[in-house]
Amino acid sequence: MLYNNSLRPAASSYYITLDAKDPTIGLVQTFQTTVSEVSFGELILSCKVARPYGETNTIHIGEENKRNNQMHISLLGRMMPKLPQHNPFQKTNRSYVLNKSELQDHDCISLYLELAIATTHRHSSRDPDLSNLEILEVAIESTQDLEPSEALGSASDAIFYIRYKDLSRVKSDVDCIAIVRRICHEQTGTFRLVGQIKTIPQKNKSSRTSILFRRRLGLYNPWRLSSPRLAQGKRNRGVVLARLRHFHKSVRQVK
């Protein structure tokens, strides 16, 4: 895989050349794509080009950034996912909680988490450590008229709630939730990821505000992660993620 980006403290575009394998026939084909950051320091990514290597259609990265910035201003409020009022990790007729095998079979979930962390930490002078993340629980909610269990692979508009633990932290004093919305627009061929990270401090648990907020996420009795019995169950379901290359540096690597 090859990819380049410009080094500047602003939203950037990434031009990527990669080999993709069709698992059904074992055929490897080279593709080119561009991924553009719509806003610096936020998970708002847009992909408008994904083509087989050698095709000659023109890519205007600068113009794409301009259009993306305009879209960001007008549509961000509507596209950005938020925490629901109910516990997102409780199965309902609109949401589906993934089991361990489904987590292992869908690498895109770990990628969504890593992108959410890498993009939201762009303001920091230190690169985020993505090698010590552990997924505890994942739920998916579709905005379309689909069975919740079908949303993972079929939904063109779906929201992923990813509860995770950062093992590199000296103290486990926060509960972390990544909220990522995946939007595929078939008519324009555009793929977007929009999301944010929420950290809920475990300190001052007696505070009424803290208790109400944690209850909203199902992190206060009986769902609190500090419960020994439930914590053991969560650890058994955890899937340790592979290291993702630093998202915001100019890197050129050939596999």
Topology:
Layout: E1 2-5, E2 13-22, E3 27-37, E4 43-52, H1 61-79, E5 95-97, H2 100-105, H3 107-120, E6 133-142, H4 151-154, E7 157-166, E8 174-185, E9 190-201, H5 208-217, H6 228-237, E10 239-240
Antiparallel strand pairs: 1-2, 2-3, 3-4, 4-9, 5-6, 6-7, 6-10, 7-8, 8-9
InterPro entries: MS5
Pfam families: protein_MS5 (PF04776)
Which key terms come to mind for this protein?
10-stranded antiparallel sheet; disordered C terminus; 6 helices; 255 residues
Written description of the protein model:
The protein has helices spanning 61-79, 100-105, 107-120, 151-154, 208-217, 228-237, and strands at residues 2-5, 13-22, 27-37, 43-52, 95-97, 133-142, 157-166, 174-185, 190-201, 239-240. The chain is of the alpha+beta class. It has one domain. Strands 1, 2, 3, 4, 5, 6, 7, 8, 9 and 10 form a 10-stranded antiparallel β-sheet that branches. A hairpin with a 7-residue loop joins strand 1 (2-5) and strand 2 (13-22). The longest helix is centred in the first third of the chain and has 19 residues, at 61-79. It is globular. It holds the Pfam family protein_MS5. InterPro entries: MS5.
Uncertain segments are 206-210, 220-255
Q: Report the structural category.
A: alpha+beta
Q: Would you tell me the overall average pLDDT? A: 70
* General form: globular
InterPro entries: MS5
Pfam family, one: protein_MS5
